[in-house]
Task: inverse folding
């Protein structure tokens, strides 16, 4: 696996231990030509049939004899030319056969580390590893590594990012994790059933195709709309259950561990102090059971769920771990907009509210599906006050707080004076909040 | 605690009597008005000529429409230009703009990822340049248009310098 680094040309640098990906990697794109063929056959069935009848066994054999080695060679070469190496401060990925591409990902900038194992990869015992840094995309993931190798690499990357001495970084090993919560499958199933979107998409999938059938009597139209609707219904119910099955949140010195999935397993690690926003969502039907869903925003990361469903107290204890020093109950005592806000937003203005504590800026919106967003002062990128003509008339204004995860949290319909005060105060708070935030290398203090 | 830190910032000088606002140089207004007059003037002439020749001289009165628009735009541009102002405080940049849709933005220096000075061909001809601030949030829309190039460069250098001194991770 390990090849000696380039040492002839560059004398002064110590040779870098470069690694290759797992040897099953070339197989991961094996399905692509097949998919193209199927796509073509579905797109143009008549043509496909005509071509199929023309095929004789000899042409088939010749095609196979050319295509299979060519695909194998391509897969092998891309694998052969993909290297990665871990230096003291960077993860370097070197890839490309014709178009060379080198990515240097700075470790102190990592926002999260994900290890994902799709079902087939689990069977093969391999995993994908991705470093979430702002600006990284799908090309920057290491797919695939051996499952154990991926775990060891994650531990090493986190240790280096945390600031452990370079010599000991790969011996530190996995930081011990302590489980904070785990979602029971029954709760998850009930919570999916109690979500309006599940029933809405199911109803749409059952109602729309028959209506279309009566209107057009065309099988293709019905299929073309019915199948996506069914797919959406499946994704919002079964898909969500499968994806969020066995959701475990753990805590370790390396940060937050989130593991989930029934078929595809995902293990995510969010280092301390990377969370930009936390949202507590409370759908109408969950309220009687006292359940909430907690979402979080990490810059550059795609996952946004922290807790799919949990009783409020457990969710709040998890949040207290994610945002140290935040007491949700304190942030949840909100002040409403003034009564005249009803002139700008009838009825819904009652759902709005804000609270400012020592550590977070909290706003709530939504009447039926309440959503409380918490932004730590240290994560505020900019503060904006906006006021349109109609709001000016009623002496109201909105305050937008922008965070690093490209999300904006808005305090809507505040009194204009209060909004101006909020703007000034928030700028001040975010400055002082930043001063005592954790350093990027969280183990060095 | 809040007032204490505000006083801290006050030592830098410009906090004692509120922020010191600076407006935009008149060059931007001149450029925008000129562009307005040129374009709407051309449209008015085109409409007047076309309708006058094809439909009759009475119809050429429609050419007054762009002219009215021009007068309205002239006033509007002036009000909009006057509404733009910015202030460099000890720790953040204030930006205020808009007449009907007012917006006020505060960007702390430590959050700036990139400061950009841009100048298109028309702007260059009028000796103008824009300064744009980028933070990690794309929603931060902090652009100061139509500055004097020397002022734009001074602002860029000062913002970069302050940003480095106060920089913080994400």
Result:
């Amino acid at each position: 696996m390990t090849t000696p680094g380039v040492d002839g040309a560059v004398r002064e640098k110590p040779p870098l231990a470069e690694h290759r990906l797992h040897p099953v990697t070339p197989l991961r794109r094996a399905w692509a030509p097949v998919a193209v063929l199927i796509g073509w056959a579905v797109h143009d069935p008549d043509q496909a049939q005509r071509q199929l009848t023309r095929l004789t066994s000899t042409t088939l054999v010749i095609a196979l004899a050319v295509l299979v080695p060519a695909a194998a060679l391509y897969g092998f070469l891309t694998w052969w030319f993909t290297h990665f190496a871990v230096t003291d401060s960077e993860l370097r990925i070197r890839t490309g056969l014709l178009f060379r591409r080198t990515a240097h990902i700075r470790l102190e900038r990592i926002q999260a580390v994900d290890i994902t194992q799709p079902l087939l990869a689990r069977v093969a015992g391999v995993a994908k590893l991705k470093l979430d840094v702002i600006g990284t995309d799908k090309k920057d993931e290491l797919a695939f590594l051996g499952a154990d190798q991926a775990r060891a690499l994650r531990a090493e990357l986190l240790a280096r990012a945390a600031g452990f001495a370079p010599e000991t970084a790969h011996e530190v090993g996995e930081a011990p994790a302590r489980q904070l919560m785990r979602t029971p499958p029954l709760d998850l199933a009930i919570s999916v059933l109690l979500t309006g979107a599940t029933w809405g998409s199911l109803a749409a999938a059952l109602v729309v195709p028959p209506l279309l059938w009566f209107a057009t009597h065309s099988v293709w139209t019905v299929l073309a709309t019915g199948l996506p609707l069914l797919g959406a219904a499946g994704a919002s119910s079964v898909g969500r259950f499968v994806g969020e099955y066995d959701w475990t949140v753990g805590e370790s010195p390396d940060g937050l561990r989130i593991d989930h999935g029934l078929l595809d397993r995902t293990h995510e690690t969010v280092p301390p102090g990377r969370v930009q926003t936390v949202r507590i969502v409370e759908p109408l039907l969950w309220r009687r059971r006292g359940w909430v869903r907690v979402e979080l925003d990490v810059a550059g990361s795609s996952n946004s769920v922290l807790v799919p469903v949990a009783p409020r107290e457990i969710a709040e204890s998890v949040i207290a771990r994610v945002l140290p020093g935040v007491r949700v109950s304190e942030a949840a005592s909100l002040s409403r907009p003034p009564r005249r806000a009803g002139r700008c937003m009838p009825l819904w203005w009652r759902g709005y509210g804000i609270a400012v504590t020592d550590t977070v800026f909290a706003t709530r919106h939504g009447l039926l599906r309440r959503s409380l967003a918490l932004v730590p002062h240290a994560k505020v990128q900019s503060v904006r006050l906006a006021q349109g003509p109609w709001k000016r008339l009623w002496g109201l204004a909105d305050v937008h707080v922008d965070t690093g995860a490209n999300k904006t949290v808005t305090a809507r319909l505040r009194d204009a004076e209060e909004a101006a005060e909020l703007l000034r105060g928030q700028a001040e708070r975010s400055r002082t909040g930043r001063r005592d935030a954790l350093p990027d290398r969280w183990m060095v203090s | 605690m809040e007032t204490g830190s505000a006083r801290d910032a006050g030592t830098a000088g410009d906090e004692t009597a509120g922020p010191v606002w600076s407006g935009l140089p008149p060059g931007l207004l001149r450029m925008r008005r000129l562009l307005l007059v040129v374009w709407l003037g051309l449209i008015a002439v085109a409409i007047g000529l076309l309708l006058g020749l094809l439909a009759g001289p009475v119809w050429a009165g429609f050419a007054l429409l762009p002219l009215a628009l021009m007068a309205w735009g002239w006033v509007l541009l002036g009000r909009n230009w006057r509404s733009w102002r910015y202030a460099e405080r000890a720790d953040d940049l204030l930006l205020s703009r808009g007449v009907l849709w007012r917006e006020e933005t505060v960007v702390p220096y430590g959050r700036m990822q990139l400061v950009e000075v841009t100048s298109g061909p028309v702007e260059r001809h009028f000796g103008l340049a824009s300064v744009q601030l980028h933070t990690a949030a794309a929603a931060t829309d902090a652009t100061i248009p139509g500055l004097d190039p020397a002022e734009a460069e001074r602002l860029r250098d000062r913002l970069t310098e302050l940003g480095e001194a106060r920089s913080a991770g994400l």
